[in-house]
């Protein structure tokens, strides 16, 4: 944040009213300094202090949003260079380029993928986020028509790109009240287009060939009073783009260069025509440190791995994804249905649940809280062991749902079966399930 807890405390009202949820103003100040609280939680902070603290507590890389409603996508807001230090915050936007050089059928197909694509993973639906509308033909009429078509087809974020400022303004008129960006804003057209962005509420994508030039453009954005922007180092090769992204992140975080404190955009689509290589470049740039990657196509074969890669990078490494402890009924089970017990690691749950649902065998799935650990990790940590599992089973309420005392455990912890039976008590039978979830359908169909 740049301010210590004591420095923040001196700017707070110091009433210890507890309305923020903390026992004292000092405790609240310490949380603010650690980035674990929001200033808005204090109802009595003065406007002067609020202005000072808001500026000091702003992330070194400002947040920029494109798109509308549920389709809006945030970029930036990052505070670390390495996700294990804390976490990355706002996932890289995955964009597809459409141009006035390609046929209408290709544009329609890519827009359909942008709107309809969604892959479910660990309970989340992974989707692409933006469309880059490119005046490749340098023809205003067809560019404006393309912008109008895109505006009518999607609520996702839109970036308009043309070397002609008049074409950009004409195309922007087709976007109505949408939150969009214009590209490129250069030293030559900055005065005109930054004023346009301020008037229309759109986001400038400022371009510079090196970090010094880009920093100068960032200074112009700040001087114009704009809070949002995107940085573009140009259509470069992969190595140069990666190097620039790293330099920008270091400058913003380590050296506090505010003029470089905006999310960046990168163009794998301009680095190669090879789809798979585009995907590889985009995957690397998602980790280092692009706010947006622009692809030539949203072919699902390349988009799905990218979306999963992004999910993995932007998942908090210090907070595993978990499911709530309890009973999950799959395929409408009854009193005779099998009972499976496993851990509350989200990936474990969704892999097991998917295989059970695919089997179409009605099943009760018992999910035990193991602090988000997988089966073997929880077993080795002493959290998925007989003397912890048995009390959970007895308190879970499963006895009221079934007329038998059979419980299936994962095959990887088969050694627990005897001790688990003893802990459960008389009448219980512990069955050893398969080691791999993929073998569950066959196992359940043969269950007796």
DSSP E strands, number = 17
Helix content: 25-40%
Largest sheet geometry? 8 strands, parallel, barrel
DSSP helix count? 17
Annotation keywords:
448 residues; alpha/beta; 40% helix; 17 strands; globular; three-stranded mixed β-sheet; Rossmann fold; 17 helices; eight-stranded parallel β-barrel
Outline of this structure?
It is built from 17 helices and 17 strands.
Question: Can you describe this structure?
Answer:
β9, α8 (211-223) and β10 form a beta-alpha-beta unit. This protein has helices at 5-11, 25-33, 47-57, 104-116, 140-153, 165-172, 190-200, 211-223, 238-253, 268-271, 275-287, 300-313, 346-359, 375-380, 386-396, 417-424, 440-445, and strands at 64-66, 73-75, 93-99, 119-121, 124-126, 130-134, 157-161, 180-185, 203-207, 230-232, 264-266, 292-295, 326-330, 339-343, 363-368, 406-409, 429-432. With 448 residues, it is an alpha/beta fold. The protein is globular, with a radius of gyration of 27 Å. The termini are far apart. The model has no long low-confidence stretch (mean pLDDT 93). It has three domains: 5-57, Electron transport complex subunit B, putative Fe-S cluster (3-methyladenine DNA Glycosylase II, Chain A, domain 3, Orthogonal Bundle); 64-313, Dihydropteroate synthase-like (TIM Barrel); 326-445, Rossmann fold. The chain is built from 17 helices and 17 strands.
């Amino acid at each position: 944040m740049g301010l210590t807890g004591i420095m923040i405390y001196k700017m707070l009202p110091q009433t210890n009213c507890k309305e923020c949820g903390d026992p004292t103003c000092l405790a609240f100040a310490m949380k603010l300094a650690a980035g674990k609280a929001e200033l808005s939680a204090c109802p009595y902070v003065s406007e002067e202090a609020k202005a000072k603290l808001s500026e000091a507590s702003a992330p070194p890389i400002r947040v920029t949003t494109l798109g509308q409603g549920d389709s809006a996508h945030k970029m930036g807001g990052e505070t670390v260079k390495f996700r294990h230090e804390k976490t990355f915050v706002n996932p890289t936007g995955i964009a597809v380029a459409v141009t006035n050089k390609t046929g209408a059928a290709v544009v329609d197909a890519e827009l359909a993928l942008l709107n309809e694509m969604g892959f479910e993973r660990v309970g989340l639906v992974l989707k692409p986020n933006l469309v880059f509308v490119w005046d490749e033909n340098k023809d205003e009429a067809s560019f404006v028509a393309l912008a109008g078509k895109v505006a009518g087809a999607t609520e996702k974020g839109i970036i308009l790109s043309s070397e002609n400022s008049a074409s950009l303004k004409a195309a922007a008129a087709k976007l109505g009240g949408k939150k969009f960006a214009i590209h490129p804003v250069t030293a030559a057209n900055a005065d005109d287009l930054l004023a346009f962005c301020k008037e229309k509420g759109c986001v400038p994508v400022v371009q510079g060939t090196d970090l010094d030039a880009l920093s100068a453009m960032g200074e112009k954005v700040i001087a114009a009073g704009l809070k949002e922007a995107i940085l573009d180092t140009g259509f470069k090769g992969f190595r140069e783009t990666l190097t620039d992204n790293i330099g920008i992140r270091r400058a913003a975080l380590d050296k506090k260069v505010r003029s470089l404190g905006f999310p960046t955009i990168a163009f794998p689509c301009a680095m190669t025509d090879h789809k798979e290589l585009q995907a590889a470049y985009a995957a690397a740039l998602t980790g280092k440190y692009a706010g947006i990657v622009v692809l030539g196509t949203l072919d699902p074969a390349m988009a799905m791995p990218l979306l999963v890669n992004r999910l993995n990078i932007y998942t908090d490494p210090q907070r595993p994804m978990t499911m709530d402890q309890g009973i999950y009924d799959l395929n409408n089970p009854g009193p005779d249905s099998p009972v499976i017990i496993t851990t509350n690691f989200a990936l474990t749950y969704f892999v097991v649940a998917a295989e059970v649902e695919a089997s179409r065998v009605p099943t009760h799935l018992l999910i035990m809280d193991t602090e988000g650990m997988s089966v073997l990790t929880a077993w080795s940590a002493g959290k998925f062991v007989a003397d912890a599992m048995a009390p959970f089973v007895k308190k879970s309420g499963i006895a009221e749902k079934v007329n038998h005392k059979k419980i299936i455990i994962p095959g990887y912890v088969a050694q627990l079966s005897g001790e688990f039976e003893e802990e459960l008590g008389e009448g219980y039978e512990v069955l050893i399930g398969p080691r791999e979830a993929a073998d569950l359908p066959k196992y359940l169909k043969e269950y007796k």
